[in-house]
Design goal:
heterodimer; A: alpha+beta; Metal Transport, Frataxin, Chain A; OB fold (Dihydrolipoamide Acetyltransferase, E2P); five-stranded antiparallel β-sheet; five-stranded mixed beta barrel; about 25% strand; elongated; B: alpha+beta; Trna Endonuclease, Chain: A, domain 1; six-stranded mixed β-sheet; three-stranded mixed β-sheet; 3 helices; about 20% helix; globular
């Protein structure tokens, strides 16, 4: 009987016994006995030696005692069921480290507002992703770097049952798995001869996740005692990144506190030099994390600028005089085939005219991929070239050296 | 081959045990026995009180089986009761009858069968409060077992019978007055209320008809 269960803490006067009866039956409980209008006895799935008596007669003097007892007993079975599920999940799967992302909220224990629950799952994913990225390199800001590696890591992770108590998202990560670092396909290289350096162990990635979260907590404490965000910069080497601080902000958003904890599977030796197995964050940490995120992003080395030549195929301006968005078919080889760029009003209108005349344009900016779209940030129009058909013909002839803009690639 | 539960009275001083770890005299609350004042001869001192509970559960379960009643354990502290006995409906138009029982086992009490009743002390007022509660949904009774302090002699089995020492008595205490000033209330148990299969059947019959047990 655990106080952790929300059922056990329910006010018996608020429970509709008929509804409880119905919900239990819908959950697979069987009616094994009853007396009309007095009570119904139900057994949980797989249990035939024990039953829960749900009282139906609210006028009975012992009604509330009985209802309270029923709720306690049901929660006992529910918890046992969950523990069984987690045990069986761990038995059938390979050894797994267990990450628990817990959010406190005003909702009754075991429940969470829908949007908050979605955010909790999303932010849990973001913490795992941020930790995976810092495993490969310690950077203030990753943007899309190592995104595919992080996705391959996520592909190894199982989401477990939610646990009773506050709302908890459980992630099982293989304790002895490996994630390829580069995107080499198996048929292009021979996995048998792959060097260990080409793959990262899932356990060590998990350690990076906890290190990044712990370093963030340390930097928050440093801020509280020194009123300085310098701890965040100093601990980038320990796994702090813009991605980690924003993920933690997301985790805390709308909660009354959150924590991340891990249980290392005992099938493997406990990791060496790992921070605490549980890291707590307070609601007031969110503001510090937000400020740290802004600073990390502002001082991070920006992505390299690229120059692209191509045909304008999309023009969009929300309001006259404001910035516009253009879409470009890239005619330069070896770069994203399509890009979008934010341009100032002046540059936007030059591009609009180039579109009318079917002229090629050359734009420059920082290219980052978001989902399936490559975006060019801080972009400006370098020049408008001649008619696109002629340039395309030149490209087909292979004389790309003469195309203006092409020479500037990589600058 | 039917086995019988034979009851013989041979009562010696010892201790009282209830499911809540209630003990008396020579047995401490954690089940360890002090060396003084004990006439207990345990097979294993560490588990003696737990075995007293098990013995009584076995007795009650055996009687229930004889009377065609199912037995299911109740997690501690739910109703202050230990078991739920249920007699299923014997015809399609008859409903089942449930009964909660609180178990107490003792080696210190010596009921005289010639007298109408004996006195039994409950070690917590709460036990009486749970039993005295007016109930409509399912009734509760107290079952007191009188046990030998010599553990190895609790049962004797032969080809045609099984002997269990000594005897269980049942009592209904619904509506019994509860004195808030008394921490260990004594209750009166009728010696005519030997807990056996005919008695349990009669209890279930009366409850099924909605009659009182007192």
């Amino acid at each position: 009987m655990s106080d952790a269960s929300s059922l056990a803490n329910l006010d018996p006067t608020r429970v509709d016994p008929e509804r409880l009866n119905l919900i239990l039956q819908e959950s697979g409980w069987r009616v094994i006995g009853q007396r009309k209008n007095l009570y119904v006895r139900l057994s949980p799935p797989g249990e035939d030696r024990q039953s829960v008596l749900v009282p139906l007669d609210r006028q009975a003097p012992e009604y509330f005692e009985k209802m309270h007892a029923a709720l306690l007993l049901i929660s006992h079975f529910v918890i046992r069921n969950m523990l069984d599920a987690n045990i069986s999940a761990r038995l059938v799967a390979d050894p797994a480290d267990t990450f628990l992302f817990r959010a406190e909220s005003a909702a009754p224990s075991g429940l969470i507002a829908w949007t908050h629950g979605e955010r909790l799952i999303r932010s849990s994913r973001r913490v795992l992703v941020a930790g995976a990225k810092t495993h490969l390199e310690r950077l203030k800001y990753f943007g899309n770097r190592f995104g595919q590696f992080a996705n391959r890591y996520l592909d190894t992770v199982l989401m477990g049952q939610t646990a009773p108590g506050s709302y908890i998202v459980t992630a099982f990560t293989p304790a002895n798995g490996f994630v390829q670092i580069s995107n080499t396909r198996d048929d292009e290289s021979q996995p048998m001869f792959r060097l260990p350096s080409e793959a990262a162990s899932t356990r060590s990635i998990g350690v990076s996740v906890m290190k990044g979260a712990a370093a963030s907590k340390e930097a928050i404490e440093h801020y509280r005692s020194h009123a300085s965000l310098s701890g965040f910069d100093d601990l980038v080497s320990e796994g702090i990144s813009y991605e980690m601080t924003t993920a933690l902000t997301d985790l805390l958003s709308g909660s009354d506190g959150a924590d991340i904890s891990v249980e290392w599977d005992p099938a493997l030796d406990a990791p060496f030099r790992v921070p605490d197995n549980s890291i707590e964050f307070r609601p007031s940490d969110a503001e510090i994390l937000t400020r740290a995120s802004a600073q990390l992003a502002a001082t991070a080395r920006p992505p390299a600028r690229m120059t692209i030549m191509g045909r304008v195929h999309l023009l969009s301006q929300r309001e006259a005089g404001g910035p516009g968005i253009i879409g470009i078919d890239n005619l330069s080889p070896g770069k994203p085939r399509k890009l979008r760029a934010h341009l100032s009003d002046d540059d936007y209108h030059m591009t609009l005219k180039a579109h009318d005349r079917n002229d090629a344009v050359v734009v420059q900016g920082q290219v980052e991929r978001e989902g399936n779209i490559h975006w060019m940030y801080d972009a400006r129009l370098i020049t408008v070239l001649g008619e696109i058909d002629g340039i395309e013909a030149q490209i087909k002839e292979g004389s790309t050296e003469n195309i203006p803009g092409q020479l500037e690639f990589g600058e | 081959m039917a086995r019988q539960c034979s009851i013989r009275f041979r009562i010696e001083p010892g201790q009282i045990v209830g499911r809540g770890g209630v003990t008396e005299e020579a047995v401490t609350a954690d089940g360890h026995m002090a060396d003084t004042k004990s006439n207990v001869v345990a097979v294993d001192k560490r588990t003696f009180t737990a075995m007293m509970e098990q013995l009584q559960e076995g007795y009650v379960t055996t009687v229930a089986a004889t009377a065609g009643c199912t037995v299911e354990p109740i997690p501690k502290d739910l109703y202050g009761c230990d078991l739920r006995l249920v007699r299923p409906g014997r015809r399609s138009d008859e409903e089942e009858v449930p009964l909660l029982v609180q178990l107490k086992n003792t080696t210190t009490v010596k009921p005289n069968p010639a007298k109408a009743a004996f006195s039994f002390k409950l070690r917590k007022r709460a036990y009486l409060e749970r039993l005295a509660l007016k109930r409509k949904i399912e009734k509760a009774i107290l079952i007191v077992m009188i046990t030998s302090p010599i553990q190895a002699e609790w049962t004797v089995v032969d080809h045609d019978l099984m002997l269990v020492k000594h005897c269980c008595y049942w009592e209904t205490l619904e509506g019994h007055p509860v004195d808030r000033n008394v921490n260990e209330p004594s209750v009166r148990i009728r010696t005519t209320n030997v807990f056996d299969a005919p008695a349990l059947t009669e209890i279930m019959n009366r409850l099924g008809r909605g009659e009182s047990l007192s």
